[in-house]
Structure formats: C-alpha cells, structure tokens
Write a structure and sequence with these properties.
Layout: E1 13-17, E2 24-28, E3 31-36, E4 39-43, H1 46-66, E5 87-91, E6 99-103, E7 114-119, E8 122-126, H2 129-150, H3 156-170
Parallel strand pairs: 1-8, 4-5
Antiparallel strand pairs: 2-3, 3-4, 6-7, 7-8
C-alpha cells in the first residue's frame, strides 16, 4: 500500500465592485453576516470584528487620496464575472494587518481611482468612488451593529485612534 499524504488548500476570495451596490448585514447564530454582490462574509468574534473595522478605517484615509476625480467610472469596462454569490469567507480571531493599496485615477481601470482592501483571505476591490462609498457605509454600520449586539467597548474610540495613526502614516 502506498504512502498517504495530506493535502491542504487555502482559499482566497477576491470581489471586484463597480458602482453603487447594496451591502446588507445581520447577526445570525452569534456571527455577523455581511452580504454584498459576489460574497457573504461571516465575522465570528470581537477580535475579528476589530481587525475588519480597523481595515476600513485605514482604507478610508487612503480613499481620500485615491478618489479625487469623478464619482462614477469615467471609462466603462465590462466585468468578466457576472455579479452573484461566488463564495463565503469566515473571518475569525485576531487578523493580520490589512494590506490596502490604491491606484490613481489615471492608471485605474475606471479612470477615477481604485482601492484594494486585503484582509486575510478576503480581497475587496472598489473600482470607483461609489463602490467604495457603498462598501464603507455598509461595513462600518455592520461592525458598529455587531459591537453593540455583542456588548463590550464600542469601536469608535479605537477606530478614531487608528484613523489618526493612518493619517500620520500617509501624510
């Protein structure tokens, strides 16, 4: 009989968004469930919630420098993947520091800037300002609702401190 080998596979999900869209959330089975075009993200605990919220705070600082032109896409391009639920990502425990990158309007696919937020195995690409505004509003409201539902300290003071650090870093 041959030797048995164990195979592992890490899944990464990238969601690319253009234009205004709906981001909804609910608390179900003790988890925050965030639904958007292309994905459902389950945040399981306060440590994960803090990491997610911190990523959006830092992304907000970078967004101020990226989305300087038109609110909607200047150049039209067709997404190769129709918008539907492509995957589910579960975010648990302490998260690694997020990777956030921006493209200036001149070199972005839409012509008005691009923001990429990578947190663990999830990457969200906002291809214009309206996509960013939809994501930012949805995630901040979802995180604040979960923090309130789960009890404990609110996220706003920690977020404010994180925002101040991020602003100093990118000035």
């Amino acid at each position: 009989m041959g030797e048995r080998r164990t195979a592992t596979h890490e899944t990464h999900l990238t969601v690319r968004l253009l234009g205004p869209h709906e981001v909804t959330w609910r608390i179900a089975n003790g988890e925050l469930e965030v639904m958007m075009p292309g994905a459902v993200i389950n945040v399981t605990d306060r440590k994960a919630l803090s990491g997610v919220y911190g990523a959006w705070v830092e992304a907000g600082v970078i967004a101020l420098n990226v989305f300087t032109g038109d609110r909607r896409a200047v150049r039209q391009y067709v997404s190769r993947v129709p918008q539907r639920i492509l995957g589910v990502v579960k975010i648990s425990g302490r998260q690694p520091h997020p990777t956030i990158a921006g493209k200036a309007p001149e070199i972005s696919p839409s012509g008005c800037g691009q923001l990429v937020i990578r947190l663990g195995h999830l990457t969200i690409v906002c291809d214009d300002r309206t996509a960013w505004e939809s994501q930012d509003a949805g995630w901040r409201a979802a995180c604040e609702s979960a923090a309130e539902a789960w009890g404990g300290p609110q996220l706003t003071l920690a977020a404010f401190r994180g925002e101040q650090r991020a602003k100093r870093r990118y000035e």
